[in-house]
């Protein structure tokens, strides 16, 4: 019986593993968020700041609610996340398309912690949908009914609790950061920064926890320290291509080198431990844009755009008077200058200890 189950799971490509769910699915979910909520926010910001009427005026009215172009993109975050997860789990077409409904339901019912609800529920709905796919002669009815039925049922049953739990954890982190900005600035910056370089999604984690405020600022600092730090300290090996691919792409490119020599990670981690509390204690830098931006760092400058969007939101809400020179100084120092200076300096000391040598940071494609 056990062998039959194994054979069935293999035939259906159902792999119950940390890699499949914690890396592949989570990473794909972040891409779905990027292509909906994040892009929508960027479009709205561009429209508002440059006075582009087409981007600031409603283009559709649904159920009495008016949507701009960016608003439509943001409204599709639930379906986008679920479909991205299904794609990562290699779902057949009927399951993949059915996840649009599942994502919308789980995200809507999950509230502020909707992304976490989408992650759990979309995974389960995907795998059950894959299990029944093409097992009957009326597959076009059975597969969507099962996938959507399971997804809706779990959304109604689990999503509010999952969303609330994620929201409460996020609030606890933000409360602790407000209370102890130095210690939590270090912890949040280091942990989220490391998550960005690891093959998991720091963006999805921040989105799931609705991480904003000072904690969001620390997360931006940590992610930027990893990306800019690796980009600059490996410039000798990787030149301009490596600088761009890591600095505005992802520091995850260094994972192979980290596996070969984990000590190359010391400098970026120590840098994030410095820039985190600088962000929280010195500049009081807050990320009050979309939570997913907190975990993006300098990837396409999304973290910095998120901080800027937060400033605009705060001004509109009346909680901030204006964007000051100190705001810009803090953002530029924390995101770019300090990582570019500190990380190579720290790495020089590590090299002198003999822990890192020339070539250890060389990217295979450089």
What would you call the shape? globular
Q: From the helix content, strand content and strand pairing, which structural class follows?
A: mainly alpha
Query: What is the overall pLDDT average?
Result: 91
Quote the distance from N terminus to C terminus: 50 Å
Q: How many distinct domains?
A: 2
Q: What share of the residues does DSSP label as strand, in percent?
A: under 5%
Helix-strand topology string: HHHEEHHHHHHHHHHHHHH
Strand order of the largest sheet: 1-2
Number of strands: 2
Share of residues in helices: over 70%
Over all CA atoms, what is the radius of gyration? 22 Å
Question: Regions with pLDDT < 50 over 5+ consecutive residues?
Answer: none
Q: What is the tally of helical segments?
A: 17
Report the sheet with the most strands, covering strand number, pairing sense and barrel closure: 2 strands, antiparallel
